[in-house]
Amino acid sequence: MELNPQSLSGAIAEILILLFIAASTGWLCARAIINKQLYKINLEITQKKAELAHYKITHNEHTFEPTIAKVSKTVYPDHIKTIAEPDNFLLIEGIGPKTVELLNKEGILTFEQLAGTSAIMLSGILKKAGPRFQIQDPTYWPQQASFAKDGQWEQLKEYQTYLTAGKSN
Amino acid sequence: MFDLNPYGNSNAPWQHIIMIGVTACLGFLAAYMPGKKKVSEMEHKLKRISSELEGYQ
Q1: Transmembrane segments in this chain: where (chain A) (predicted)?
Q2: CB-side exposure of A159: number of CA atoms within 13 Å?
């Protein structure tokens, strides 16, 4: 290809080709520099991401147990609550509100538990609680609790009448 | 192929060199400015990952 530099079109074409080559060279240089920088950063990002993923997995493994504990906490208390719903011990002759509190504190919450506790053991609990409770006589509490446990309210009433009559005599 | 100075003008080579240099600079800037923006974005991303990583360490 021959260009005539003495004609206007030839001169313009020569200079345009030259400028295009110069601009392209500059553009390619810049791209090379930028690509190098991007490659370095991308490499670092990949490494950090891998490290982060490793830490995240390790962290999840550590928090796995407490999550389970949390679940069991949510489920377990509901179960306990249904079992541990305290019965109304005030229906038992000789038991007052303070004694109910004391028995509940000792883990005796239901009529079944009270019926299964011997009078001697109940005396021990009352003795341990202080002189205020020591005057109480728990001898007939397990029997009354046994009636209440079975829902034999008539027998319980009769038994309590008998006890009250005995006391008054 | 090219005869950039057919009349033998003594100032022509310097004019050509300046013209080519400026064009090369413009070409360089045309690619460098958007590229630099992308590099800044990636650096910001790297910083974010690094700070997240520091939180775990």
Answers
A1: 12-34
A2: 18
**Residues of chain A in Cβ contact (below 8 Å) with chain B:** 1-3, 5-6, 14-15, 17-19, 22-31, 33-35, 37-38, 41-42, 44-45, 48-49, 51-52, 55-56, 59
CA distance B12 to A164: 133
- Domain boundaries defined on chain B: 29-57
The answer to whether residue B11 neighbours chain A at the CB level (below 8 Å) is: no
Task: Tell which of B37, B41, B56, B57 to mutate to test the A interface (max A CBs under 10 Å).
Answer: B56
Sign of dihedral through CA atoms A145, A150, A154, A158? Answer: negative
Length of chain A: 169
- pLDDT, tens digit, for every residue of B5-51? 777 888 888 999 999 999 999 999 999 999 999 999 999 999 988 88
Question: ipTM of the predicted structure?
Answer: 0.85
